[in-house]
Structures are given as C-alpha cells and as structure tokens.
Design a protein that fits this description.
75% of the residues lie in helices and 0% in strands. By secondary structure, the protein is mainly alpha-helical.
C-alpha cells in the first residue's frame, strides 16, 4: 500500500495497471485521511485564532454585530479540543464527499472516451490521487506555517499570485483553484489510463475536465455566498 502511494507521485500509470487486478481504495483512503489530520491538526487552533484576529481587523462591522448579539466571546474562546474535533469532522466530510462525487464525475467523463471502466475503478483512482492534494498538500502547508510561524497567507492556490485577502470574495474564488488539485487530477488521469489501458492523454483530459468543473462550481459558490 505504501508503495502504491509512492508510485502515485512518481509513476501513477503503474498504479493504474495494478488496479486491473484489485480495485482497493478503503485502506488508501484511511491512510490519506490519517496523514492529512496528522499534518493539519497541529496548526488548526493557531489558524483559527489568527483568522479571528484578521476578521476583527478586516470586518469590524461584522464583529460589532456579533458582539452586540453576544456571540463574539463564545467564538473567540472556543477550546483547542473543540477546534481540533471540528477540523477532523470537516476534513472527514469533505474527503468522503470528494471521493463519492468525483467518482461519479469521472465515470461520466470516461464514457466520452471508452465504454470500459466502472465506478469502483474511478473511486480507486481518485482515492490514490488524493494522497497528493490532501496529505502532501497538508504537509507542505504545515512546513510553510512552521517556517513562517504563522498561518496567515499560507495557501497553495492561485491566491498566492494575487494581493487579495482570503476572507474576501475574490480570495475565496481564487482558493477554489489549487495547484495540488491540478497535480492530483493529472495523477488520477494517468492512473485511470493505466487501469483501462487507454492513451495517457485521454485519461488526463478527462480528469482535468472533472477538476475544472469542480473548481468552477466552488468558485461559483464563493461568488454567490455572502462574504464574512
């Protein structure tokens, strides 16, 4: 299993070839989830505290409303344990949702290329690829936070190329397009190509297409949702 995760980074096509015999993904998903928490939980409380401080600076009118409603004190005095639990549950829900929905989209997309392939293959392919945009991405962010001593401005999305606050609507839109998500999509496409014995570029095109659809949907939600 560890070898498969290694190959996901360096030779994803070979991972796909292995899926022809065994479409395993549950253990991979569990490992990815545990690693993601291990790399992200140590900084979750610090990130929450700094986010609250930034909110107070950038959105004073909102903070005033929260104070008037008697909610601000309870928000800033949340315990570290509560934040870690909230983070863990949030990662779990997001991760499971990503596996289920992405698997469906990949299956729909691959039908434009070949009649081969089933839902289990799509899920297994994407689950392996999430090692990149969940575990490795969390590790990289953790290292940057450790080096900076702060969670502020730490992102692997297109936001790094623009001078926009992550709390702003523009910032939230830009964060829908993450560099590690692109890498994971390419790896997933190569895994699918190996599993179905199709051209590598076809698998990558399908996977990148699914990534683009998901990113546009997330960006759209950020556009219509009220800013903090």
């Amino acid at each position: 299993m560890i070898k498969n995760l290694y190959l996901t980074v360096f030779d994803p096509y070979k991972v796909g070839e292995g899926l022809k015999e065994k479409k395993s993904w549950v253990l991979v998903a569990l490992i990815v989830f545990i690693l993601t928490l291990a790399f992200s939980l140590p900084y979750s409380y610090k990130g929450y505290q700094e986010a609250m401080s930034q909110l107070e600076i950038q959105k004073p009118e909102l903070v005033k409303k929260l104070k008037d409603a008697g909610r601000w004190e309870s928000m800033i005095n949340v315990s570290q344990k509560a934040i870690m639990i909230r983070t863990s549950v949030g990662v779990l829900i997001t991760y499971v949702f990503s596996i289920v929905v992405t698997g469906v989209l990949l299956l729909l997309g691959i039908r434009f290329v070949t009649p081969e392939g089933d839902y289990a293959t799509m899920i297994a392919s994407w689950t392996h690829a999430t090692f990149i945009n969940y575990s490795i991405a969390s590790l990289v962010k953790g290292l940057i936070i450790w080096a900076k001593g702060s969670t502020l401005g730490v992102t692997t999305s297109l936001l790094i190329f623009f001078n926009a606050s992550p709390l702003s609507k523009t910032g939230r839109v830009l964060q829908a397009f993450d560099i590690f998500d692109i890498w994971a999509a390419i790896a997933c496409g190569l895994i699918i190509a190996g599993a179905l014995s199709i051209e590598k570029k076809k698998g990558v095109y399908v996977s990148l297409g699914v990534w683009l659809i998901k990113s546009i949907l997330l960006a759209g939600l950020a556009m219509i949702s009220p800013g903090m």
